[in-house]
Design goal:
With 191 residues, the protein is mainly alpha-helical. It is built from 10 helices and 4 strands. The chain is globular and about 55 Å long.
């Protein structure tokens, strides 16, 4: 099991390192020590400069380039530890893979809440929580057993203060549990 856990950790790290290296080269062809925000913004979102402002505001199936730019800007600012508006390779790694960085956990939580919180009240209700995993059916059939179990898990374990919704701290405990090792759990499952 320890060998399998080490292999899982190695392959996860290799994926991240390869992704960062590929994107670093793409966004930094001169291989400078840092990538500046304006260079990244132009490279990724420069096409928006030519778009009609009304098209920027319009969402297409829940997708908005303007919202993506705002989200990336916030993530960039958090990853930019020295505040120079340019990211080193380590900071760029945190920007691309915030789930792997303890420094970026609040951004991961904020993005999760934004993705799941359909009524924009800043919290995740039980219906929003379930809706993230299960869309239901058109035929009024009964929910699967696992969905009922998730509703009970929400009520019993996730919603610590019992107010019917998850605040940021409760979302953080759900998506980034402190006492959970993904590689260890996966190795146990596989064995």
């Amino acid at each position: 099991m320890s060998e399998l856990k080490a292999w899982i950790q190695f392959t996860q790290r290799r994926y991240i390192d390869d992704d960062v290296q590929r994107q670093w080269r793409s966004h930094n062809p001169d291989n400078n020590d840092t990538i500046h925000w304006e260079n990244y913004r132009t490279n990724v979102y420069g096409f928006m400069d030519e778009m009609d402002p009304t098209d920027l505001e319009r969402e297409n199936n829940g997708f908005s380039y303007k919202a993506m730019l705002t989200r990336d800007r916030r993530r960039w600012s958090v990853a930019d530890r020295d505040g120079d508006d340019a990211l080193t390779k380590a900071e760029f790694t945190d920007f691309l893979h915030p789930e792997e960085s303890p420094y970026m956990r609040d951004v991961v939580v904020a993005e999760t809440v934004e993705d799941i919180d359909k009524d924009d009240d800043g919290k995740v209700s039980v219906d929003e929580y379930i809706g993230d995993m299960y869309r239901g059916t058109d035929d009024d059939s009964e929910e699967p057993e696992w969905v009922k179990h998730e509703r009970e898990t929400f009520k019993t374990f996730r919603d610590k203060d019992g107010d019917g919704s998850l605040n940021n701290e409760e979302v953080k405990e759900w998506i980034i549990p402190q006492d959970f090792d993904h590689a260890e759990a996966e190795s146990k499952h596989l064995i």
